[in-house]
Amino acid sequence: MNGADVLCDVLLANDVNVCFANPGTSEMHFVAALDRKPEMRCVLGLFEGVVTGAADGYARMTDRPAATLLHTGPGLANGLANMHNARRAKTPMINIVGDHASYHLPLDAPLTSDIEGLAAPMSKWVRRIEGPADVQPATEAAFRASLTPPGVTTLILPADAAWGGASPASPGRVVLPPPPVADLDVVRKVADAIRAAPGRVGMIVSGRAARADALEIAGQISAAGDVRLFSEVLIARMQRGRGRAAPTRIPYPVDAAIAVLKDIDVLVLVGAREPVAFFAYPGKPGRLVREGCQVLTLAAHGEDLHAALEALRDELGVKPSQQTVFATAFPDESTPSGKLTDDAIALSVARKLPADAIVCDEAVTSARRFFALSAFAAPHDYMMGTGGSIGGGIPMATGAAVACPHRKVINLEADGSGMYTVQGLWTQARENLDVVTIVFSNRTYAILHGEMRNVGVNAIGENARRMLDLDHPALDWVCLAKGMGVEAARADTCERFDALLDSALSRRGPFLIEAVI
């Protein structure tokens, strides 16, 4: 038995049984160890951004970490953008980064780099394994750190620690402490603030507070106490649909967000942070709440958010039998026809969404209407990229499908964002994952056109246009998907889109619709 075997055994003992991987020479002993462990599912990504993004999607749906396997510093660097998204989503993840044998490092071989320095900004915890005897304690520490509270961890595995002989391991399950409970003094303070500002209180729910059971409690507080329920701008995971409380998503544009929050005197945060503008804009504030708004944290990430909401409900005297307001049926709206539009796609997907589906939304500007419509859709899970780093949608959908093989996954994808990690389609084909990818093909970085206007540039010239548009040549997503092994078709009318979506939803396996808008 060697160190790599011990690492696998510790992971498996703690139900970390999926490894998203893109290995290299330094990791070959770990690859060999994985080969001896059929209980471990190994999923190859053709680019490290697919690997880390898939691990993010997997963990969001399972609430437990997957492992990633990355090749030295450059391999880690290729995966950093989606590690950033996972960090912002507070996703549990265990990155295993291979490195040169410890005695080889002083030679400064071509792939030598500062792995700790690269990993630290995107990880809550980083550790280099000191040798074969350190593999078990280091891996157990990585697992513990990934869940207390949930977050991204990085474990560096030198080649000689992997191939070095190790005593047979008999790892047990790592015992994790329960999440901290709500401070009753804080609960009373929040309750007093809610009573003092009837009709002018907002509550932002995130993390476990955005699951159906916690949302029910938040909805009861909202109905009984005239509290407006919000979600963050970018949503890590929310259980959504008919019969569930439907928080209003705070808009991305600064002016729209300020307008939504302008009447809020007290803002209560449950697993969320205070909303701020994504960027600084000339003449606009960075904080989105109005001056004088009291911002209170009921419970933070890592604390028991469900119990905190229960405690607040009790303190406010709201009975568990309190009825809440939730969406029941779609608004009366005619079925679109003719030329395909982004609104028509959003309406069609919301109406046809299967029960218990998973929606991974990286359509950026094009699918903004979908979230509001999703309140009327069949019950489902909704996820977004949370760090603002594009290229997370296809990998996130891939990981979600690995995590939940019996649930339909719908990926709403912008064409520009999708090109960052298009290789994820190949993994979907290889693993026969049940993912329907809908590419909003407007052949431009539409959000950047909006950002130019936001900074005061209302007319752009040829140089700027060439940096913001994706034409000349236009991307051909049908050919791209088929080249990756995924069946695909194109729609430019509402009727064609509806027919393709019906077909894709009626069968299993990956399918891509290029929606030309």
What are its keywords?
alpha/beta; about 525 residues; 7-stranded mixed β-sheet
Describe the protein in words:
The chain has 517 residues and is an alpha/beta fold. Helix content is 38%, strand content 18%. It has helices at residues 3-13, 28-35, 48-62, 72-78, 80-89, 115-119, 135-147, 159-163, 184-196, 212-225, 254-261, 305-315, 342-352, 368-374, 393-403, 415-418, 424-431, 446-454, 462-468, 477-483, 494-505; strands at residues 18-22, 41-44, 67-71, 93-99, 125-128, 152-158, 201-205, 227-231, 238-240, 248-249, 266-270, 294-299, 357-362, 380-384, 409-414, 435-441, 487-491, 511-516. A seven-stranded mixed β-sheet has the order 9-14-13-15-16-18-17, with helices on both faces. The protein is globular. It holds the Pfam family TPP_enzyme_N. Belongs to the TPP enzyme family. Keywords: Thiamine pyrophosphate. This is Acetolactate synthase large subunit.
SS summary, helix count = 21
Number-wise, the strands total 18
Mean pLDDT: 95
The outline comes out as: globular
- Strand fraction band? 15-25%
Major sheet attributes:
7 strands, mixed
| Spatial ordering of strands, largest sheet | 9-14-13-15-16-18-17
Alpha-carbon distance between the two ends: 57 Å
Judged by helices, strands and strand pairing, the structural class is alpha/beta
Radius of gyration: 24 Å
Helix content: 25-40%
- Would you identify the regions where 5 or more consecutive residues have pLDDT less than 50? none
InterPro entries: THDP-binding, Thiamin_PyroP_enz_TPP-bd_dom, TPP_enz, TPP_enzyme_TPP-bd
Domain Thiamine pyrophosphate enzyme N-terminal TPP-binding: 1-106
Protein name: Acetolactate synthase large subunit
Domain Thiamine pyrophosphate enzyme TPP-binding: 375-514
